[in-house]
Amino acid sequence: MTTDKENKSRLLVTREGVSYVLPFIVVTCCFALWGFANDITNPMVKAFSKIFRMSVTDGTLVQVAFYGGYFCMALPAALFIRRHSFKSGIVLGLALYALGVLLFIPSRAIGSFWPFLVSYFILTCGLSFLETTANPYILLMGDRETATRRLNLAQSFNPIGSLAGMFVAMQFIQARLSPLDTGQRAMLDEAQFEALKQSDLGVLVQPYALLGLLLVALLLVLLFIRIPAVKATPTGTRAPLWPAVKRLWLNRAYRYGVVAQFFYVGAQITCWTFIIQYGTRVFMGEGMSEQAAEVLSQRYNIVAMVLFCLMRFVNIYLMKFFRPGRLMAFFAAVALLLLLGVILVGGRTGMCCLVAVSACMSLMFPTIYGIALGDVQDDTEVGSAGLIMAILGGSLLPAAQAMIIDSKTSLLPSVNLSFVVPAICFVVVMAYGLSHRRD
Questions:
Q1: Percent of the chain scored above 90 by pLDDT?
Q2: Taking 50 as the threshold, does the pLDDT of residue 235 lie above it?
Q3: Domain-by-domain residue ranges, the chain?
Q4: 56: which of 65, 232, 239, 264 is 20 to 30 A away, CA to CA?
Q5: Those residues with Cβ within 8 angstroms of residue 241's Cβ, 6 or more apart along the chain or in another chain
Q6: 224: Cβ contacts below 8 Å, ≥ 6 apart
Q7: Residues 68, 71, 76, 80, CA torsion sign
Q8: pLDDT digit string (tens) for 368-422?
């Protein structure tokens, strides 16, 4: 029987006599960095819609470009890692991340929406490299029995980066944009609109430019840090690609894990993206201006992320006593009930329910990841790519929700009704958790 101290040491990464503590810390920093990118981006759907006088549906092209990059680059990233190394994958990921962020500067000079979408796409090609590399590397840093808990620990720093992204979005972008609301902007002539647009784009681009400089500095530091190699397979050999894909397809836990990850990421992004639209409608109904309602909504969003962050650490502890799959199914059921409150009750009560959903989501991504890759053996890199490609759910499902928001409904406010999309997603996640009997 092992003691708590022995369990902790097994969780904290040594393998075959090699210590991975320093690499664990370095790679965990990358989790915070892509959390920052994710959550400075979610409020930009509303910001770009206002700056360019677009519909909510058009604004979600930000999410299409952002999560489309994840989808397109995940498999090339896996092939790159198979040929080179985990460190090479992290370095290239940071380089693409920095390039995409710095391209915001010429995008502002062009003054069109589409260059920003290209910048987001390149940025997330880098994030796809980072996630495809970092997640399996963390899983392989120690004992297989503690792999899911270890990944949950590393992922706990992701919401810390997310909180920083939300804070920057609220304090340095949303609060500094012109206070003119959507209706007032629609009445401006072309010259007035162009001057206002350039001013707002200058506010938006500045935090991204500073982030780019930070990433370049981190990249230079990383080049001089030794990251030990780790075997992704028991034999150290890598199977050919297409036989690996076939084996993964025949692996039930993995196949349905990809589906569950698609719907989970869709649920996460829809809840975090449209909390701004939901809160704006609620608070404007109480007499606030549009800008004040947006800022207050973002504060609720930060509370949601704090809950998400705290529950990560709570769930790491709970996993000592409960099977991860069953724990995930329980929280998915609670999230479903909370979303019914969002849809049917509305108002500030609905807003509180929406915030509470984040507490339920905190363990889902790494738990699905750990369960799905639990038995893939020689196909870890390719399996990781499939799970990162599933992040495409964060691109497609927000667009579906935006279409409901832009529609006219007679039964319920359209923004309330739109949360049926993440509700369906949590049903899929709950089913996956319940179906997995061997955590």
A1: 28
A2: no
A3: 17-226+240-435
A4: 264
A5: 79, 382
A6: none
A7: positive
A8: 988 888 777 667 777 878 888 888 888 788 888 888 888 776 677 788 889 999 9
Is the pLDDT assigned to residue 55 strictly greater than 60? yes
State how far the Cα of 244 lies from the Cα of 96, in Å rounded to an integer.
27
Phi first, then psi: give them for residue 410, nearest 5 degrees. Answer: -100, -25
Phi, psi of 358, deg, nearest 5: -60, -35
Q: Give 362-375 pLDDT, tens digit per residue.
A: 889 888 988 888 77
Dihedral sign for Cα 270, 275, 276, 280, please: positive
CATH fold for domain 17-226+240-435: Growth Hormone; Chain: A; (1.20.1250)
pLDDT the model gives residue 292: 83
Q: For residue 231, is pLDDT > 70?
A: no
Rounded CA gap, 405 and 191, in Å? Answer: 30
Two structure tokens written together for 160: 């810390």
Q: What is the dihedral of CA 333, 339, 343, 349, to 10 degrees?
A: 120
Which phi-psi region, left, alpha or beta, contains residue 53 (left: φ > 0; alpha: ψ -120 to 50)? Answer: left
Give the C-alpha separation, 43 to 62, whole Å: 10
pLDDT tens-digit readout, 285-331: 888 887 788 888 888 988 998 898 889 888 888 888 888 889 999 99
